[in-house]
Amino acid sequence: MSQQDLFSNNNFALEKNHKKKIKWLSHSAIEELNRCPRCFWLSYKEGIKLPEGIQSRLANRFDNILKKYFDSYRHQNKLPPLIEGKIKGTLKKPFKEAYFYKFDDDYGFYGKLDECLINEKEEHIPVDFKTASSDPREKETLSAYQNQIDEYLFLLEENGLKTANFGYLIYFFPEMTMELSNGFPMIIHVVKIERKSKDIKKRIGKAVSILKSSIPNPSEDCSYCRWFEKVKKYY
Ligand code: SF4
């Protein structure tokens, strides 16, 4: 057993021991905190979440299909034809989806990678699939996506893995065409995201300290809370 395997096994044991009692925060939790600390607190302390309304789960379906598609090329030691020539590296083998970081006895942070590449220096490169409804080639990368790649690099390193200091977003965008008889053509757009921040422990620490304090004030410009203020006298 290599030192790396030993590290992974120990880490797995750590994960197993702590999964039950630790509250695990994710990238989405930190983004929720950035939008509104009060909503974040209500979600993770009280399990009260903002109503989602009607939402499409189509992106989840795309993600599942893409993960299986990539996985089918893992043991052939080649990149899937959809991204050949757009990205360098090999698919990590075996692939591990979830990585955990224990912050303290009560809280931890975890992330689930869509895919992971290894470059010629044996460095890990996290990959996230994005299904786009507008052309991603004309858009700036959202700060939430930058944060996500920074957090994945952090998690890989905390789990004893070398990283390449960047990750990839792979966008899948349906092409506008009338030629649909032989399949539904997709534009595949790859964006390399260089690491911007290593200070992820600070991000997690801020979230944990909010959860360990009393409920924060609502955001001033939130339409939900303003609506509730107006209607509550009628209850
Ligand atoms: S302001 Fe109120 S409703 Fe809006 S996000 Fe925050 S807690 Fe939720």
Can you describe what's shown?
This protein has helices spanning about 5-20, 25-35, 35-45, 60-75, 145-160, 200-210, 225-230, and strands at about 25, 90, 100, 105-110, 115-120, 125-130, 165-175, 185-195. The chain has about 240 residues and is an alpha/beta fold. The protein has a single domain (about 5-235), classed as Lambda Exonuclease, Chain A. A five-stranded mixed sheet has the order 2-5-6-7-8. Strands 1-4-3 form a three-stranded mixed sheet, sandwiched between helices. Helix 2 packs across helix 3 (about 35-45). The structure holds iron/sulfur cluster. Iron/sulfur cluster binds near residues 38, 39, 50, 222 and 225.
What's the short story on this structure?
The protein has helices at about 5-20, 25-35, 35-45, 60-75, 145-160, 200-210, 225-230; strands spanning about 25, 90, 100, 105-110, 115-120, 125-130, 165-175, 185-195. By secondary structure, it is an alpha/beta fold. The protein has one domain: Lambda Exonuclease, Chain A, CATH 3.90.320.10.
The tally of strands reads 8
CATH class: Alpha Beta
Order of helices and strands: HEHHHEEEEEHEEHH
Give the domain tally: 1
Beta content comes to 15-25%
**Fraction of residues in helices?**
25-40%
Instruction: List cofactors, ions and other ligands.
Output: iron/sulfur cluster
Number of helices: 7
User: What is the CATH topology assignment?
Assistant: Lambda Exonuclease, Chain A
Instruction: State the shape.
Output: globular
* Sheet with most strands: 5 strands, mixed
Q: Which architecture per CATH?
A: Alpha-Beta Complex
Radius of gyration: 20 Å
How are the strands of the largest sheet arranged?
Answer: 2-5-6-7-8
Q: Span from first to last CA?
A: 64 Å
